[in-house]
Amino acid sequence: MGATASGKTRLACDLAYVLDAEIISMDSRQVYKGLDIGTGKDLEAYTVQGKEIPYHLIDVCEPSQQFYLHDFIRELKISFEQILQKGKIPILCGGTGLYLDALRKDFSFTQIPEDQESRKELEVMSKEALLLRLNALPKATISHVDRSSKKRIIRGMEVAHHLLKNEVKLTSPQEVYHPMYLGIKTDTEVRRNNIHRRLIQRMDNGLIEEGEALLKSGISHQRLQELGLEYKFLSLYLQKKISRLEVENLLFTAICQFAKRQMTWFRKMEKEGIKIHWIDISSSFQETLDFVKQHFHRQAS
Questions:
Q1: Which of 6, 19, 261, 299 sits CB 3.0–4.6 Å from 2 for a disulfide?
Q2: Considering the entire predicted model, what is its pTM?
Q3: Which long-range contacts (CB under 8 A, 24 or more apart) does 76-81 make?
């Protein structure tokens, strides 16, 4: 794990090569086909010294569809078990906070479907009116509800109504996963330089054409913008609303802000008791490998 442009994929692949492991992507956008350059799939990195490193949860969904958290949780478990059945080690690689949390938190409620008809009625109500209706429901069904916004209150009511009619089996991910968290440590200025260099490289090597290809495939500008960051600004550029220079400047700022939010999420994990072993990407690979091997030896003994 680590902020964007920290070198996660390369390190994961090098470790997988030595440890005979397979990689599960924990990136919420790499699941989409055709989002290659913008999401940094770096598929060439999955060949190490001529050996193909198997990977999972990349290119598993059409970009026109929505890949939800519960989809990830389901596919993660399937991939995880498949790798273990081969007698190999799963290396999970990515920086999507919710996906990382899925290793330790129960997100069973995310599988409860949305009620579009009910939403139409509720969305026009004030927050105060929604809270009154929410609080009229049995306490056991609303203890989980985040009341900070109308959107979350409405979702909480959907979940509560579902729980009144259905039994939801809660299973702790901690019964399945026992992860060792390796975090890549990067200096802020170094990270900004890496982000800028990578952005210019991607712009010069097909990012704009990738946006054009997605539009030609039938993806709308609205959907392109929903896919976030690179694709949001590509959409504006391809509609001639901003210039290429504006794309570079605005996107650079947005990616740096995203990296900052990622680091904030990792600090939150640590405050919640998660031990993250921070490693310096500039240190020798052998040091990192020895550290990982020692950890697994301790786990086994």
A1: 6
A2: 0.82
A3: 76/24, 76/102, 77/176, 79/24, 80/24, 80/176, 80/177
